[in-house]
RNA sequence: GGCGAGGUAGCCAAGUGGCCUAAGGCGGCGGUCUGCAAAAUCGCUAUCCGCCGGUUCAAAUCCGGCCCUCGCCUCCA
């Protein structure tokens, strides 16, 4: 693609022209899950965002290496496992499984690798040792801390000086640290806690070091895009930069930092600690997972999103519109003629304009909300045409399918079940021809009770699954 | 206190100097089409982009001031 791709880079707080480390290849890392619970809508927002970013980069002709991690060593996991009388690794494993179920339902493309913190202890320990040798870290009673004052660029990402950070400090006083802002690279194990052996005694890695260690191992310094939720900007990403650049002596750690806006529930961020979480699995019991996806796609990735009661219903209606068009248009093509049609030239023009605008929005900092708007605009335009040649209508369909693919929206489902329903509908069509409307309406109503939408049209009867399960009567 | 984001129709939301007398989604009202239903379609639903000034031939978009909302600074996607 010849589009110049712009990316808002949190490092410079500006949109920049994207240039990857190697032309045609993009390496990206997305801070993944701390495996302590099921996913909620906030996770979905971040993960869907970076999935579309990845798909867009691929669409623009890049080969993308996409990493997302599991932080499966963590204080909360340990605490929760202890509560349940379960081994922390088992607990982590359950949530990893749950994660895979959810991201699959959301049609998030698989990552190239899913590195786990627990599988990278040697790399982590090596990093900490080097940081100590270079004077960037110190040990106190089995704990190792990063010495933030030794790293002059500390605070660059969050736009804060050390003193500013300190004055806002809600940091627990800790006598053992040289500076309140120093953060843990290694934590000594308390009795009965799981541990790994290290030069500083039994313990476990601190929170931030695992991302650095895995990134440096798989992607190397200066990889292209580092993503995550906006809540990770400080301290997590700030600390990652400090420890990675201090360790390697090179800069930058990552060329572009990108942050997805947070999902808020009634004015407070949806996070574990506040407890106002909407479980993704619960939402997906009620709505088609694609409802979640299209809802998240309706606003800019970097904007925060507020939850309100109608939010998902609106997405459900929007998805229905997409599905209805898809099946309607398919029938129209099937019954189209190969002959040229008076509308053909107009359709070509409409398509060209759509493709241009769709791409322009994506190329401008992945404005998928704008692109989705263009797609709906195209649907409205195509609904107005009286017909077209099979060839041109087919081309339009190809563009739509491609657009849906980039946005990761699946509208077609279960081919097997479709055959059975087609048989039923063909019977219904016969009796309709004979004027037996009461029975035909009865069949339609029964199918709708099963969660199907049935639409009679001059092209035949189309059907697809409803997007909201409690619409099922 | 510091840093950041934002205020666009009934709701959500894109647009950030002229293509804007402002996309798109949801909703509402009226018409067309239809065996019915639904979908679709047509018309109407912001003469205006938080407020006040300024710059400019031209501003929702730039500058200054004010008001308000949200997030981060503590574990979090």
TrEMBL record:
Annotated positions binding ATP: 272
Major localization class: cytoplasm
SMART domains: DALR_2
Binding site for Zn(2+): 31, 211, 236, 240
Family annotation (InterPro entries): Cys-tRNA-ligase, Cys-tRNA-synt_Ia_DALR, Cys-tRNA/MSH_ligase, Rossmann-like_a/b/a_fold, tRNA-synt_1_cat_dom, tRNAsynth_Ia_anticodon-bd
Highest taxon of the lineage: Bacteria
Cellular location(s): Cytoplasm
EC code: 6.1.1.16
Pfam families: DALR_2 (PF09190), tRNA-synt_1e (PF01406)
GO cellular component assignments: cytoplasm
Transmembrane regions: none
Needed cofactors: Zn(2+)
Subunit and partners: Monomer.
Family of this protein: Belongs to the class-I aminoacyl-tRNA synthetase family.
Name of the protein this chain belongs to: Cysteine--tRNA ligase
Organism: Psychracetigena formicireducens
